[in-house]
Design a protein that fits this description.
By secondary structure, this protein is of the alpha+beta class. Helix content is 28%, strand content 29%. It has 16 helices and 34 strands. The strands form 8 sheets. The protein has a 7-stranded mixed β-sheet with strand order 2-3-1-4-5-9-6, sandwiched between helices. It starts with 8 loop residues before the first strand and ends with a helix. Bound molecules: guanosine-5'-triphosphate and magnesium ion. The site of guanosine-5'-triphosphate (GTP) has 22 residues, from α1.
Length: 664
């Protein structure tokens, strides 16, 4: 392959709810393409892309794993993502750098909670998507029913390009609707769905379809790639990955229907680091997707985010656990770069212009304290967690040195279990995690002002007055200044603007302060006495002064839920929901099942999924989604230990900040 020929590259992510068969499908694809010689399996703990010890023993994926293979002259970078909601941050990082997606849906379970989350994320980012319906061989597989559900819950533009033959034990494969087998009787219903969906894209086509009752196959075939790439059609395929059925047509569809990367020719280097790994020999390895330009071994490359230059020592093809130095990474492609020891996830390499924006998907709602079992291991635990936080920045490691405490943010209990496992397995450390607690936030209780005159002990001079008022829920921090630059020079104003969000990281109770408007209404520097950093020192004192005068309210994270249970357990369940401070609409009874939708605080429902299972004897279906933050009832109290000295204790705070500045 020509290295610079981006037409012959595909960057594709495989996404799905947990257990739909992503890793099994990936394994089969690697086998079919000839990339691996023997077929591994998730159940035996031998799948290529589930290579972490914990993945093999538990049979679930916890990391996004990248592999690469060739098929019909096209090189495909394939990322197998984890499906469990606790590892959503892995999915989020993969989404950013993919040009196409395969969404797997089980023909038995149908559209599940995580399917919908990923679907919305894919549509928001306009990533062309193939839908692969898997597990047609299993008891309960219902291809047509599941297809209708997909069209109802995900998109009416999801249309089959294959028709399955049989289902469950009798499932024998699927045929292309565009070939001659597509005319068989079994295929009629599927072909009709495809024709209708395509015809609806264009008026002249629709008229012709209504006239003739069919569309020429050649024309359909020609239209499919562009419709798919434009996001106007979501082709659906049918298979059973564990039996190797439909793997080849799926690969064919990946190559012909999903788009090659769009690249900038002769542009400057522009890329993003989307993953960090550690290699025992090479140290830190940064996975980079390049949108423009070329990087080579020994190049010194500009890291725009950190404003540093770092030298490339080796460029490796991404290939599971194998390493091969290819010496060059060209626009459109993905590779693992060695030698960037400072690189962090999300860093922009070269210029930012061609890199897609980052959008949030995973929001950790829990914080948990890590304890070490043996005092001598304390430094090793700190170092291990720092390394893990580099690999997953959402862990947001808080190391309170004075209190000798370590806190992490996590998505849920399975992630805690996996972290315990990784600390033990990879670092030989026996760390224990405390009970997880919810991450609260704070917001101003009313409008008011904060003031600081930082003029002592000399030399220093910074005077600031902030107006603070509550903002709408979900609005975050809005900052502006009405102080003219004659009163306060622009460079000092910039310093204040930069320091405000930092100061709001910890409010009166130690939680992040959000949903507020801060306006700088008065500011003054001194021509002789002001040191450039005085305003960075003064801002947190001014902000905290304001918060302590006007008071704050606690906000708590909420989940929206949708559940369906056998009617006879409905009453007991509603009682449970009320005890958890749940709110819901009147239940709907349909075919002896009760369906309830509403909201629940995260804090009261941590063990609800487990209890739900036993309450409904495994016959209930529960889906929950993060639904933002809401004001807590007044009796809820929650405080978090503060990092560093509280700016309300002004003299102690000034001393500590000055000491830190002098030391840095
Ligand atoms: N009957 C049947 N079982 C399948 C099929 N595909 C996968 N499985 C089984 O389903 C289970 C889950 O498969 P995985 O490939 O690990 O699913 P996954 O989507 O990668 O799961 P996570 O990565 O943990 O989200 C395994 O026990 C597979 O053997 C299929 O087509 N038919
Ligand atoms: Mg998997």
């Amino acid at each position: 392959m020509e290295l610079n020929d981006s037409q012959h590259i595909r960057n594709i992510g495989i996404f799905a709810h947990v257990d739909a068969g992503k890793t099994t499908t990936t394994e089969q694809i690697l086998y079919y393409s000839g990339r691996i010689r023997s077929l591994g399996s998730v159940d035996a703990g031998t799948a290529q892309t589930d290579f972490l010890e914990v993945e093999r023993s538990r049979g679930i994926s916890v990391r996004a794993a990248a592999t690469r293979f060739s098929w019909q002259g096209v090189t495909i970078n394939l990322v197998d993502t984890p499906g469990h909601v606790d590892f959503l941050s892995e999915v989020e990082r993969s989404l950013r750098v993919m040009d196409g997606a395969v969404l797997i849906i089980s023909a038995v379970e149908g559209v599940q909670a995580q399917t919908e989350v990923i679907w919305h994320a894919l549509r928001e980012r306009s990533i062309p998507t193939l839908i692969y319906m898997n597990k047609l061989d299993r008891i309960g597989a219902d291809p047509l029913g599941t297809l209708q559900q997909i069209r109802r819950l995900l998109s009416p533009q999801a249309a089959p390009v294959q028709a399955p033959f049989g289902a469950e034990d009798s499932f024998s494969g699927a045929v292309s609707l565009l070939g001659t087998d597509g005319d068989s009787e079994e295929a009629t219903a599927y072909l009709q769905l495809l024709e209708e969906t395509v015809a609806e894209q264009e008026e002249s086509l629709l008229l012709r379809y209504l006239d003739c009752g069919t569309l020429p196959k050649e024309e359909l075939k020609q239209m499919l790639p562009s419709l798919t790439r434009e996001g106007e059609l979501f082709p659906v395929l049918f298979g059973a990955s564990n039996k190797g059925i439909s793997i080849e047509p799926l690969m064919q569809a990946m190559v012909t229907l999903l788009p090659p990367p769009s690249i900038v020719t002769d542009g400057p280097v522009s890329g993003v680091v989307f993953r960090i790994e550690r290699d025992p020999a090479m140290g830190r390895i940064a996975y980079v997707r390049l949108y423009s330009g070329v990087i080579r071994n020994r190049d010194s490359v500009h890291n725009e985010t950190q404003q540093i230059e770092e030298k490339v020592t080796q460029i490796r093809k991404i290939d599971g656990q194998k390493a091969e130095d290819v010496g060059l990474l060209a626009a459109g492609d993905i590779a693992a770069v060695c030698g960037w020891n400072q690189a962090r996830i999300g860093d922009i390499i070269g210029c930012a212009d061609y890199v897609p924006r980052e959008t949030r998907l995973a929001v950790p709602l829990l914080t948990v304290q890590v304890r070490w079992s043996n005092e001598a291991e304390y430094p090793a635990v700190v170092a291990a967690l720092q390394e893990l936080a580099d690999e997953d920045p959402l862990l947001d490691l808080q190391w309170l040195q004075e209190q000798r405490e370590l806190h992490l943010k996590v998505m849920g209990p399975i992630q805690i279990e996996v972290l315990t496992h990784v600390l033990n397995n990879r670092y030989g450390l026996k760390a224990v995690f405390g009970e997880p607690s919810v991450i609260y936030k704070e917001t101003p209780a009313q409008a008011g002002e904060g003031f600081i005159a930082y003029t002592m002990p000399k030399p220093c001079w910074a005077i600031l007055r902030f107006h603070i008022e509550p903002g709408e829920r979900g609005s975050g921090i809005t900052y502006s200044s009405i102080v003219r630059s004659e009163r306060l020079l622009d460079r000092y104003q910039n310093e204040v603007a930069r320091s405000v969000p930092e100061a709001l990281q910890q409010g009166l109770f130690g939680w992040e302060v959000t949903d507020l408007k801060v306006t700088l209404v008065e500011g003054e520097h001194h021509v002789w006495h002001t040191h450039p950093l005085d305003f960075a020192v003064a801002t947190p004192m001014g902000i905290m002064d304001g918060l302590s005068r006007i008071g704050v309210k606690l906000l708590e994270p909420m989940l929206s839920f949708r559940l369906s249970v056998p009617e006879e357990t409905g009453g007991k369940l509603m009682n449970e929901l009320i005890l958890m401070r749940g709110e819901f609409d009147s239940p709907v009874v349909r075919q002896e099942r009760m369906e309830i939708e509403g909201t629940l605080p995260v804090a009261t429902s941590l063990d609800f999924p487990a209890r739900f299972g036993s309450l409904t004897k495994g016959r209930g279906v529960l889906a929950t989604f993060f639904a933002g933050y809401r004001e807590c009832p007044p009796d809820v109290k929650a405080e978090r230990v503060r990092r560093g000295v509280n700016p309300l204790d002004q003299s102690k705070y000034i001393l500590s900040v000055r000491k830190a500045l002098a030391g840095s």
